[in-house]
Amino acid sequence: MKKKKSTQRILIEVLGLLFGLLWLSPFYLMIVNAFKTKLEIFQDTLKPPTMWTFDNFKQAFEELAFLQTFMNSLFMSVGSIIIILFFSAMAAYALSRNGSKLSGAIFFLFVAAMLIPFQSVMIPLVALFGKADALNFYGLMFMYLGFGCSLSIFLYHGALKGIPKSLDEAATIDGCNRFQVFWYIILPMLKPISITVAILNIIWIWNDYLLPSLVISGAGTDTIPLKLFLFFGQYTKQWHLALAGLTISIIPVIIAYLIAQKQIIKGVSDGAVK
């Protein structure tokens, strides 16, 4: 029996190692080829570069106007996350504390909205809003609220089920109104799930190309994914610069994830199990 268990454990560990290597392979290809010349990439993609140089990173940094582009992406991502966290938490609190059938139906609509692909609403969205200058970053933030609130409300709703209603009642007796109960009592207790919601949303918002390309049109307002598209022309593709730019652009998200990974795991379990 012990031999059987040990064999199963070894098999699971080997499979886990293989899946881990498979998951890491795109990062290996991106980082290794970011240090190569354009010719070396086409000669052998898997082979490490003959000479490690940072020339690609310097050129990509300059051509991307990285500091300005980074600040554009940061402003848009952080602003979108704040809006998503605030409105999603309030909506989930109202839906979880109100036990009516209408609240259940509204929550079901939010959950069902997660199944709607962006491509199905892309054309009506552009037809309604187009590339109006008034939209730009602020309009884009509220669009991200619409696309990101479904999953966020679902996670918040699950976490709120683990917070007893007696806390609301005690705070109300002490003189708090409904918003004060939410802001001072409930929201601080949602810190783990809030970090989870923030990271899950910032990953796709930071890397999003399609929606900003449809909305943003002003000069100097490009985000990192939009700017990276400059390396892919009609007749030539500068893979060495594109991969160097991609390597630079993912560093902030990876750092944020590594810092908050424990809170993310705790938040997902709180939001999904309870």
TrEMBL record:
Transmembrane segments annotated in the record for this chain: 12-31, 74-95, 107-129, 135-160, 181-206, 239-260
Membrane topology: Multi-pass membrane protein
InterPro entries cross-referenced by the UniProt entry: MetI-like, MetI-like_sf
Keywords carried by this UniProt record: Cell membrane, Membrane, Transmembrane, Transmembrane helix, Transport
Subcellular localization: Cell membrane
First-listed, main subcellular location of the protein, grouped into a coarse class: membrane
GO CC annotation terms, alphabetical: plasma membrane
Residue ranges constituting the ABC transmembrane type-1 domain according to the UniProt record: 70-260
Pfam families: BPD_transp_1
PANTHER family linked: ABC TRANSPORTER PERMEASE PROTEIN MG189-RELATED, ABC TRANSPORTER PERMEASE PROTEIN MG189-RELATED-RELATED
Family as reported in the entry's similarity comment: Belongs to the binding-protein-dependent transport system permease family.
Protein name: Raffinose/stachyose/melibiose transport system permease protein
Organism: Domibacillus enclensis
Origin organism lineage: Bacteria, Bacillati, Bacillota, Bacilli, Bacillales
